[in-house]
Specification:
Layout: H1 23-32, E1 45-47, H2 52-62, E2 66-71, E3 74-80, H3 81-89, H4 99-102, E4 104-105, H5 116-126, E5 130-134, E6 140-145, H6 146-155, H7 158-161
Parallel strand pairs: 1-2
Antiparallel strand pairs: 2-3, 3-4, 5-6
Length: about 180
C-alpha cells in the first residue's frame, strides 16, 4: 500500500490548493528582480581604524549582527558576530584591537542593480549570511541579509506560509492534533 499522495493530490485524492506563484515564476523573478527590490537595510558602517570595542557598541545599538568596515568611504571589509567570537574572543584579543586586524577583508559584494539570483548564488557559494550592497564606486548603500532573501522567496508561496482561514472567526468542526 502506497501512503504517499499522488503529485498534485492530497492523501484523500482531492486536488491541492494553489500555491500562489508557480516555481517557474519564482525562477523567472529571481533572474528579473534586482537586489534593490529586496529593500536592503541601510548600511551600518565603521572605519577600519576604529577599535573592536566601538564596533561592538555600534552592533548592539543598531541591533545588527554585521557591520561594514570602510576605508576612505569604500567597503574594505565586514565584521560579524562570528568574527567577534572567532577572531577576537576565542583568540584572546583585546577590544582595543583595530578593526583592520579582525575584519573579513575584501568581502564579496552586490550592486543594487544585480539580480536576486546573483545575490543568492554569491551568498550560497561563500556561505554568507550578509552581503554588502555597494554602488559603482564601492561605497556602501545597504546590507543584504539572508532573512531579506527568505522573505522574498516566501512571498512566492503564500498558501504554504499563510495557513489562516480567510474568515478569522471560522473554526474547524473537529479538534486537530492528538
Amino acid at each position: 500500500m502506497n501512503r504517499l499522495p499522488k503529485p498534485g493530490r492530497s492523501p484523500s485524492g482531492a486536488p491541492l490548493p494553489a500555491l500562489g506563484l508557480y516555481p517557474m515564476e519564482l525562477s523567472r523573478n529571481l533572474r528579473a528582480d534586482s537586489v534593490a527590490r529586496l529593500d536592503p537595510t541601510p548600511p551600518l558602517a565603521i572605519d577600519a581604524a576604529a577599535r573592536v570595542g566601538e564596533a561592538v557598541v555600534a552592533m548592539r545599538s543598531g541591533k545588527v549582527g554585521c557591520l561594514l568596515v570602510t576605508d576612505r568611504g569604500r567597503v574594505a571589509g565586514v565584521f560579524t558576530e562570528r568574527d567577534l567570537l572567532t577572531r577576537v574572543l576565542a583568540s584572546g584579543r583585546s577590544l582595543e584591537t583595530p578593526m583592520r586586524a579582525v575584519m573579513t577583508p575584501d568581502p564579496v559584494t552586490v550592486g543594487p542593480r544585480d539580480t536576486v539570483r546573483t545575490a543568492i548564488k554569491r551568498m550560497q557559494r561563500g556561505g554568507y549570511r550578509h552581503l554588502p550592497v555597494v554602488d559603482a564606486d564601492g561605497r556602501p548603500v545597504g546590507t543584504l541579509s539572508a532573512r531579506r532573501v527568505m522573505h522574498y522567496i516566501v512571498e512566492h508561496f503564500p498558501a504554504l506560509v499563510f495557513t489562516l482561514p480567510p474568515d478569522g472567526n471560522q473554526y474547524p468542526a473537529t479538534a486537530e492534533g492528538a
